[in-house]
Specification:
- The chain contains seven helices and 21 strands.
- It is of the alpha+beta class and 358 residues long.
- The strands form four sheets. Strands 1, 2, 11, 12, 13, 14, 20 and 21 form an eight-stranded mixed β-sheet that branches. Strands 8-9-7-16-17-18-15-19 form an eight-stranded mixed β-sheet. It has a three-stranded antiparallel β-sheet with strand order 3-10-6, with helices on one face.
- Strand 1, helix 1 and strand 2 form a beta-alpha-beta unit.
- Helix 1 runs parallel beside helix 7 and helix 3 packs across helix 7.
- The two termini are 22 Å apart.
- Bound molecules: flavin-adenine dinucleotide.
């Protein structure tokens, strides 16, 4: 007989928000997390950007997800009497006349108007950064202080006796057709929120993962203004609440570990030197792996043969924006049996002929 409803593996953004929401609904929950200081959530900058990439793409479902995320984080701020989410204007600098032409085209398209705020003319005399082509001010950008957010939730989970700090080893997991057992805990369902480790997880490694490693610098730049987030040449520079700056991040698909490399540090430092006009000092350098599926959409649902073995993952490079809404969809499915949006349902991927023997 199960003694809890849900066993959740992982306390990154996915596991934290899902665990919090399920507990708030009255479900009995236990989270197991191995406190990895280089998890994707632990090192991410925490940005919410409505417009991303070279092609000025609107983030998926942005008009629904952004207000939902805002309300969710604000609600938790009131509960815990802390500030997690910071709104900050962004300036995206153009790098060519072609990019200006693309902006001119996009600003006329539906959906873009409320985000593309104002054209800022070129300013070769700018004291702080290179601005040969001008840029566009972007509305509704923000960042989440993820370390504070995760720490606050961890403390809450500890107070409520909802978390165990250890690694969940496969040898300690027993999964029968009835329920799940981990040490003395028996659960009706197990939900893996294990980030990029899902591709080593026997139940979900068959999914078409395309994780991307990223590296990020924390900097001291005393003379740099702190009034906005700057985007240039595919990089961003974020002034944080703590007085430092974060600069990143690159994408690599070959070596998937969280070890910072000298090559990437040099590349990031060179990119920053080309872009800002002030000296900077590197205070920290971190690496992590973004959990991404080939179609870049999140995934929720059950293992095709084991309905009580479940997953919430694939938050890609947008965990802060996606996690609250996706976790809510999952909670509604679990508690009220609401159908899952086909775009994020695990059943969009074929399991045929995987020959999985967990
Ligand atoms: C360089 C970089 C910059 C980024 N910048 C941003 C950004 O600005 N904005 C944004 O929204 N997103 C950003 N992201 C992406 C963001 O980090 C992810 O979308 C999100 O954090 C993924 O959360 P998750 O909970 O799914 O996975 P994770 O954060 O990886 O969490 C998984 C957790 O599970 C634990 N775990 C795994 N296996 C086990 C096990 N067997 N037993 C116990 N515990 C286990 C891990 O230790 C970890 O704590 C960035 C990522 C990187 C790498």
């Amino acid at each position: 007989m199960a003694n809890i409803d849900y066993l959740i593996i992982g306390q990154g953004l996915a596991g934290s928000i899902l665990g919090y929401k399920l507990h708030a609904q009255g479900a009995t929950v236990k989270i197991i997390d191995n406190r990895n200081k280089s998890s994707s959530s632990a090192i991410a900058a925490g940005l919410i950007d409505p417009i991303t990439g070279k092609r000025f793409a609107l983030s998926w479902k942005i008009d629904t997800l952004r207000p939902y995320a805002d309300d969710f984080y604000r609600d938790l701020e009131r509960t815990f009497k802390m500030q997690f989410l910071h709104h900050k204007m962004s300036l995206r600098l153009f790098k060519s006349d072609e990019e200006i032409a693309l902006y001119e085209q996009k600003k006329e398209e539906d959906g873009f108007k409320k985000y593309l705020h104002k054209f800022i003319p070129a300013d070769p005399e700018c004291l702080h950064f290179q601005n040969p082509f001008g840029g566009v001010q972007i509305n509704h950008t923000s960042y989440l202080n993820i370390p504070l957010f995760l720490y606050t939730l961890r403390k809450y989970f500890e107070r409520e006796n909802l978390i165990v700090s250890t690694k969940c080893e496969q040898k300690d997991l027993q999964i029968t057709s009835e329920c799940v057992k981990w040490k003395s805990i028996e659960a009706k369902k197990i939900i893996f929120c294990d980030g990029f480790k899902a591709s080593q997880n026997p139940y979900f490694k068959w999914l078409p993962w395309r994780h991307a490693k990223g590296e990020i610098l924390t900097l001291d730049i005393p003379k740099m203004p702190r009034d906005r987030i700057l985007h240039a040449n595919g990089h961003w520079l974020l002034p944080t609440k703590e007085g430092s700056f974060k600069f990143g991040a690159n994408y690599h698909w070959d070596t998937l570990d969280n070890i910072p490399t000298e090559t990437e540090r040099t590349e990031l430092e060179n990119a920053l030197s080309e872009f800002i006009k002030h000296p900077f000092k590197v205070i920290d350098h971190q690496a992590g792996v973004r959990p991404i599926l080939v179609d870049t959409k999140p995934v929720i649902g059950s293992h095709p043969q084991l309905s009580h073995v479940m997953i919430l993952n694939g938050l890609s490079s947008k965990g802060v924006l996606l996690a609250p809404f996706i976790a809510e969809q999952f909670v509604q499915h679990l508690i009220n049996e609401t159908p899952i949006d086909p775009e994020i349902d695990i059943r969009r991927f074929s399991f045929a002929n995987q020959g999985i023997q967990p």
